[in-house]
Every structure is written in C-alpha cells, then in structure tokens.
Design a protein that fits this description.
The structure holds 3 protein chains of 3 kinds. By secondary structure, chain A is of the alpha/beta class. In chain A, about 40% of the residues lie in helices and about 20% in strands. Chain A is built from 16 helices and 11 strands. In chain A, the strands form 2 sheets. Chain A has a 9-stranded mixed sheet. Chain A has a two-stranded antiparallel sheet with strand order 5-6. The longest helix of chain B has 14 residues, at about 20-35. The chains are: A alpha/beta, B mainly beta, C alpha/beta. Chains in contact: A-B, A-C, B-C.
Chain lengths: ~375, ~160, ~375
C-alpha cells in the first residue's frame, strides 16, 4: 500500500421526501460544502472527486460531467461509479483506493439522489433483465417480500419480530437531526400499517428520499494533521454476483456471508457481536434487520429476534445497529451507502453527538443493492 | 435570496430500445414460441441447470453447453401479492393490481423463473404449490416470455 | 508509476449490430480471450472493474447484466466495481486498485451496444434538463458547435478535418476489428451529406456494438508471466465545465492538464519526439486535431498544418490512430479500451499488417473522453 487512508470529513443534506428548493446540482453542492466545512478544507485542497447515483431516477446521463458546478470538480480528476443500491459504498471504496494508491492525497466522494424526480418503482424495474425479468418484476419490494416470506417460513419468524426492527431504527432516527423520518413508532403501528406486498407493510420499508452525502478521504500524514481522531479505513469487501433476480437463493444472504467472511478473516474477527462496536447496516426493510445480521455472524440463523427483543442492537446495547436511524429513516439511494460510511466514521471519530455510541473502536458500514449484492467497509480508531 | 415560486419541468421521456436476446436467449425464446417448451442449460462442472440458458455458469466460469428440455410444470418456491400502484416501464401506464409475482422452479431446473401466478388470495398461496404454465395460443406468440400468460395452481 | 502492467487484452470485432450476442455474451467472449492472451485463468484474477452505462444499455444498474460473464461470482465471489464512463477511466481505476496494494490482478471489461438504443436521445440526456436539453443538443449538434468554433478561432478548414477521415478510414483497412474502412478522398468526405454544419457523414464515427477487456497486474505477477508486459508509465484524468457556454470549445484545458500530469508522471518532456504512437478519441474528425494540439504535439491552432504534413500517417514520425481510430469503430465506453489495446499491440509488435516500424515502438499514448465535446479526458502513457 502506498499509504494508509482515513476519513476526515463527512457532510450530508437535510433529507426530505422532496427538496423542491434545489435542483440536483444544488443538492450535490449542499453536501460538498458541508463535508468541506466539516473537514475544515477548501475546494482547492481536494485532489480528485468521485460521484455516483442511479441514472434513471433523475434521467441524467453522464452525471459526473453534468454536475461539475455542484461538486466543484472543475479542472479536477472526476470519476462516475454506479452499482445500484450499493453505489454509495462502491463510491466510498473507490475513495479509499484513490488515496491508498498514492496518486491522490485528498479525495471527495459524493453520492446523491432525488427520488422525487421520477417514479422510483418504474425506474427500479428497469434494472431487471429486459427480456427475462422486466415484464413481471415490480421493483425492489416484491423481491424483498419473497425473501421475507421464505425466511419466516424457515425459522418461524413473525411479523412482530420484524416490526421490532423498525421500532428500533425509528427510535434511533429521532436522535439524528438529518434523518428524513424522525418520529418513533410502535410495534402496533407497524403491524397496522397498510400491507404492500405480503408480509411487508408500509412501516417495514424505507422511505423515498431526496438527499446527498459527501465523505472526504485523506492519506495518513494529512489525516493525522487535519483530524484529531480520523476514522481509519481498515478493510473493504464486495460481493456482486447474480445477473438475474430469479437466480437468487432467498434462503440465505450469501453476499453478506461472503463479504463478512473476507473482512473478518483479514482483521482476525472471530466473534463479531463482541468485537464490533457499532454497525451501520444498509437495511432497506425491517426483515433484513433480522436475517442479515445472522448472515453477519452475530447469531445463528433464526435467533436474531432474541437479539432485537433483548435490546442488544439498541442504543445502550452490546452492539448498537443504525444509531442514525438507518435506511428505514432515510433512503436517498445513491447516497444511502455513503451515509452508512459517513455515519460509521462519525462514530469512530466520536462526533456523532446525540446518536454517539460510547467508545467506538471498530465500526462496520454495509451496502446493499443490485441482485442482493453486498459491500462492506470496516473503520477503526487506529490504522490497521 | 428572496422567496420565489418553485417550478417543475415535467417530461415523459421514452427512449426506445431494441435489445438482442443473443444466442442462448434466442434459442430459449424460439423454442418457447414455436413448441411451447422451456429449455435450460446444464453446467458440466457443477451440474446446475440454468433458466434462462446462458453463456456461462457464474460460480464455475464454465459454459453450460448441454441444452436441457424442462417441463411446463413446477413448484412455487416463493411469491408476493403485489398491491401497490406503479408505472410499468413496459407499457408506460399503471400495472393493474393486485397481481401475484411468483418464483417458480420448473421441473428439472435449479434456478427459478419469475412469472405471474393466476391467484391473488394470500390464503390460497403457499410455498411448495404445484403450478403449470398456461401458454397463449400458438398464433399469438411472438417470442417473448409473455408468450406464457401465467402459471396456474394444479394442486 | 511503473508497477502496473497490462498483461492481457482482447476485443470483439466492432460491428453495426451484434444480434448473435447479448451483453453477457459479448463480455464473456472478451473476458475469456483476455485471460487466454495473458495466460491466466479466472482463479488468478482477484478483482474486477466493469464499465457500462445505464442509458446506453437501457437498464438501471447496467452492470448486473454482465456480473456472471465477467467472473464476479466465480468461486464464492470476487471484489468488483463498476465505472460509468469511458473504458480508459475504468482502466485507470483498475490500476489504482492494484497501486493501493489491495489487489494484484484486475480485469477491466467494457461493453456497449450503440445499436440497441437511440443515440440521439441518449446523448441528448447528458445535457442539463433545464437549460440545454430542450434545445435538442445531442452528440452531433454539440460537436458541430465545437468544430465551427475551432475553425473560426484558428482558421482550420473542413478540408483539414476531411484529411483525418481519409487517413483513419485508410488505416482501418488493415484492422480486421474496425467497422468502417475504405479509401476515401477529401472530395468524397466534403461531398458526403451534411448532418450538422460543418460536420458531414464522413466526419463522424459510426454506431457500433462491441466489448473489450484488459487485464492489469502488479510487477511481480507481470514479470512472472511469459508475455512481454506493457507498463502503465503515466496516467491522469481531468474534467472542465459542463455548460458549453461556459467553455471556449476551441480549447480543451482538461486535456491539457491531464496530458501534462500524465507526461510528468511518465518522465516525458518532449511528447512529439518521445511518443511513438498515439491512439486518441476521434469521435469526429476535427477532434483528432484539437486533441493533438491540447496534448502538446503541436502549437495551438496548428492541427491543420500537422495533418497536412503527413507526420500523423502510419509512416510519419507521429503515427496517430493506426487502428483507424474511433472514426472507424465507436462502441461508446469500449472505444477508450480499444485505443489502449491498439497501443498494447503496437508496443508488443503484434499489430500485424498495421505494425508500425521499422523503428521499434517503445512509448504510446491512449486517450478517452466523457461528456459533451470532450468535457472530461483520460490520458494514459504506456511503455514497453
């Protein structure tokens, strides 16, 4: 490695269901300014920029070149990445490689989405294979519902168990001034919310959000100079496998298992529940907050409801998950994964304010997207 | 800046596309159209049978060259009754709801086919149900997956 | 920057339409061929960068179509990322993933089918939806503005541009991968139908289908393989303003900057004397001259003099686009990798009937662009 890498700044917009007061370029600029301010840097101190979103949500092709006035990438190296829901984590991982390569010392990464500008489900449907999947596919939800129903049947999981996940994240979201949804809900309210795609109800799923996030990565010397406590990037891992939705084995979450195994082996983590201090999980719906933490190895398959009901993953619990309120409270898709990384970085830096978990040494951020793909980034208080 | 009226620019873009089904996709769709038959292909390395047939078995990175004929019956592996409105990019208008999206494992196949199931009452649906493809009449088939109208429950 | 090498390369022939191959089939074709070229197997590849564009593919998360075909799910899954932009940018990111010390062998694979969508609407979508898209600006009309401005500012003529088409289509006669090849005369180019004044049919690149793959490796891996490695000696990319009205279209400051950095990294001080072959992104005839000026191969405004001198013909002292260039085959996104592959073949001495010589080819330049009128440029310096 040419140099070690740390996150030294994070900025995000105030997330709302509609941000009619700004266009996409202006929304992007809001996040960029916030990140620069957070790191106490000026634009001319940024060596390169990376941007990503999902093109069809706003209908803009070559978003990198279109948004230069917003990112401030004029006369800078500029790269566009996109991998669907995992876009935000894909961006963060690229920020890490840019700096680790030694070619760049300070890199600003932006993820954004204005979901209000198109029919989100219509746009998501176009991610399915046009010949074999698209005519029957109906967006992200039924795929998740199919996963949830298979999981419930296999382990006797109830809809109330899943509701407890929503309750946790909505309660956490109330601590996050940037979150889109900031009001707590009860298990009863989740259970009584409209059924959208059985067994998934309105309050089980993430909202559609307009928002942007920006994260600044820096090389070791600069990070030590600029940040009292940088969030060091320890390792990343990615699994993007299937090409068709109907190839997916819904009984397991293979991509989380694979990515987590790679990460844990690299760092030597044997008991993630004990060794990790906080997780920002890209959890687009409540059932994922059960099955996917089993895939992360926090407990054996089918036993996650106990962790939830016992408060293990709540603030104050052994391993808090989603102190920010997570995706259940805010989902501006191209930014969502980067919000996980930025929020995990705040936890390591000890700057998460009302949503701070005490004494975070290791924080895990994950991304989800595509055909049940997973990304991960592990951040720590000390460089690896 | 002073408060100003916030405007929107509305545009219904419809960019036409002409996707090539390719060699394996064309083979699958012509057999579907002409013979009312499903085919898959088998990976010589892991033995997995894929539908739709494809150029490579991802996990083995081996071309699954053996073509396998599959039945028109199968098992409903999982499903969801879709109950929310959205714009269908296939038609540009709202897809009628409710409808049931099913993941069906055709007999002799290892991957699933996603298609519609002709039953929208959750009480009558359960994983493991036997289902059978209902084809459009031969003269109406055009070489698309919609040449199959839906699957019906045969249990 | 001498520790990343190109150790394998492959491309499909570029054709107007490839009905015989889906996107996955195209990608599989070149992935297998590039592995064979490198003498490697899929198990030797430790990470993948795919290159695609959601608008050109007509699909959100366009990379999903090619995940299996590129090997991302091989043996439990590999780390993968997706660049949305020209293949040269994808290659540069792939190189950074090795320079970071995280990976040792990167497969970079790009695909595009211009035949499947509507190029006018797709390129119209890269313009701002408030100010410029409603004008109907798209690839051809925006390039026409640039060509006109370039002529007006420096006194170049349509005949100068025609000489580029004549040279490159003639070069393509010796390249079996090219789509358009032939003996044109300046008169024929000038007499071809005007599409957007001053651009005529023969000033423009064709619509193409195709794919290309390049395998990168760190130096220990590259030196272990039997084949002569081609080293990435220098590389840089840079973007300028988006709005055409903010730019002087007769200049390309982003290309000037990217070239300066790439040459500096490669230790090139006199590009005209030191570079043996240039493969650049001539999506329109005039671009070859404008890009050569901004790369520093001749003074600004002297592109016409350069082409008339014959120095950029295969037998001249600075052969430019001996492959026939983008004017002879333009699979968008893939085209930058096609430039890289031609330089690789020339450096290896494997360019067949179009091999340059007799002086050995030791240093080459490959170039790619993103955005309207070459808003963002990537310059790669490759050496034997």
């Amino acid at each position: 490695m040419a140099q070690r890498v740390a996150i030294i700044g994070f900025g995000q917009t105030r997330h709302r269901s509609r941000r009619d007061d700004v266009n996409g370029v202006e929304l992007i600029q809001e996040a960029v300014r916030a990140a620069l301010e957070d790191a106490d840097l000026t634009l001319d101190q940024i060596d390169a920029m990376i941007i990503g979103n999902m093109d069809h949500f706003e209908g803009v092709n070559y978003v990198d070149t279109w948004s230069v006035d917003g990112t401030g990438a004029y006369m800078k190296p500029l790269l566009k990445l996109t991998t669907g829901g995992t876009t935000g984590t894909t961006l963060g991982i690229a920020g890490y490689h840019f700096v680790a390569s030694g070619l760049f010392d300070t890199v600003l990464v932006v993820g954004w989405e204005k979901n209000s500008e198109s029919d989100t489900t219509g746009a998501i449907i176009t991610c399915s294979d046009p010949i074999f999947d698209r005519f029957s596919f109906s967006g992200a939800l039924p795929g998740l519902a199919v996963e949830a129903s298979a999981y419930m049947k296999a382990y006797g999981i109830t809809q109330e168990d899943a509701a407890r996940v929503t309750v946790r994240d909505r309660r956490h979201g109330a601590n996050n001034p940037y979150a889109h949804l900031r009001t707590p809900v009860t298990v009863e309210e989740v259970m009584n919310s409209p059924m959208l795609s059985w067994p998934v109800k309105l309050l089980d799923i993430c909202p559609r959000t307009d928002g942007a996030a920006a994260v600044i990565f820096a090389g070791e010397r600069k990070a030590r100079r600029l940040a009292p406590q940088p969030a060091w990037v320890i390792a990343t891992s990615v699994r993007h496998d299937y090409a068709y939705f109907h190839d997916i084995d819904y009984t397991r979450m293979h991509t989380i298992e694979g990515a987590a195994k790679e990460l844990y082996q690299y760092v030597g983590i044997k008991e993630p529940l004990k060794e990790l201090d906080v997780i920002e999980l890209y959890q687009p719906y409540s059932f994922a907050g059960l099955k996917w933490i089993e895939a992360l190895g926090l407990c054996p398959p089918g036993e996650s409801p106990r962790l939830l009901w016992d408060g293990v993953t709540d603030m104050g619990g052994e391993l808090p998950i989603n102190p920010s309120g997570g995706v259940i409270c805010t989902n501006c898709i191209g930014a969502t994964g980067l919000l996980r990384i930025g929020e995990a970085a705040l936890q390591v830096m000890g700057r998460a304010e009302g949503r701070q978990v005490p004494n975070v040494n290791l924080a895990l951020a994950t991304g989800f997207g595509g055909a049940f793909w997973s990304d991960m980034m592990l951040l720590g208080r000390r460089p690896w | 800046m002073k408060k100003t009226e916030l405007l929107f620019l509305k545009e219904d873009v419809d960019i036409p596309y002409n996707w090539a089904a390719g060699r394996y996709g064309s083979l699958f769709l012509t057999r579907l159209r002409d013979e009312g038959k499903f085919i898959g292909n088998r990976c010589p390395s892991c033995g997995k049978v894929y539908l739709p047939p494809r150029v490579v078995c991802g996990p083995c990175f081996t071309p699954p060259e053996e073509i396998v004929e599959l039945g028109d019956t199968g098992t409903l592996v999982s499903y969801s009754v879709v109950n929310y409105p959205f714009i269908d990019p296939e038609t540009g208008s709202r897809r009628p709801i409710p409808y049931t999206l099913g993941y069906i494992r055709l007999d002799g196949c290892d991957t699933y086919l996603s298609h519609f199931v002709d039953e929208t009452d959750p009480a009558k649906l359960t994983p493991g149900l036997r289902v059978k493809a209902v084809f459009r009449p031969r003269e109406e088939r055009t070489g698309r997956l919609q040449d199959v109208l839906h699957f019906k429950i045969v249990d | 920057m001498t520790n990343v090498a190109i150790v394998g390369a492959a491309q499909t022939p570029y054709r107007r339409r490839r009905d015989d191959a889906s996107l996955a089939e195209l990608v599989h074709e070149v992935t297998v061929a590039a592995l064979a070229d490198a003498g490697l197997e899929m198990g030797d590849i430790d990470n993948i960068v795919t290159v695609s564009n959601d608008f050109w593919d007509g699909r959100t998360i366009s990379s999903m179509a090619v995940m299996d075909a590129s090997g991302s799910s091989y043996a439990g899954g590999k780390n993968v990322s997706t660049v949305e932009g020209d293949g040269t940018f994808g290659l540069f990111y792939g190189a950074m993933r090795i320079l970071s010390g995280v990976y040792r062998t990167t497969l970079v694979v790009a695909h595009s089918k211009g035949s499947e969508g509507d190029p006018m609407m797709i390129t119209n979508s890269m313009f701002d939806y408030i100010y410029t898209r409603p004008l109907g600006l798209e690839f051809i009309s925006s390039c026409a503005l640039q060509a006109r401005r370039y002529m007006d500012k420096y006194g170049l003529t349509e005949a100068d541009f025609a000489l580029v088409s004549v040279k490159n289509r003639r070069n393509a006669l010796r390249n079996p991968y090219a789509q358009l090849a032939g003996e044109l005369t300046v008169e024929e180019v000038l007499a071809s139908p005007v599409l957007a004044d001053p651009l005529k049919r023969h000033d423009l690149s064709p619509i193409s289908d195709g794919a290309a793959a390049v395998i990168l490796a760190d130096s220990p891996v590259a030196l272990r393989l039997g084949r002569k490695p081609v080293w990435l000696k220098g590389g840089a990319f840079c973007s300028e303003d988006h709005f055409l009205g903010d730019r002087d279209l007769a200049e390309a400051p982003a290309l000037r900057e990217a070239s300066r950095r790439a040459f500096e990294m490669a230790g090139v001080t006199d590009p005209f004397r030191e570079i043996d072959v240039v493969e650049l992104y001539d999506a329109c005839s005039y671009m070859e001259l404008l890009w050569l000026e901004e790369m520093g191969f001749c003074p600004r405004g002297e592109g016409g003099t350069l082409i008339r001198s014959g120095e950029t013909a295969p037998e001249g002292s600075l052969p430019v686009n001996p492959s026939g260039g983008v004017l002879s085959a333009h699979a968008v996104l893939v085209a930058g990798l096609a430039r890289v592959i031609e330089v690789v073949l020339q450096l290896r001495g494997e360019a067949g009937p179009r091999q340059l010589g007799p002086k050995p080819v030791e240093l080459g330049l490959a170039h790619g662009i993103n955005g309207p009128c070459g808003q963002s440029h990537c310059v790669l310096v490759l050496g034997a």
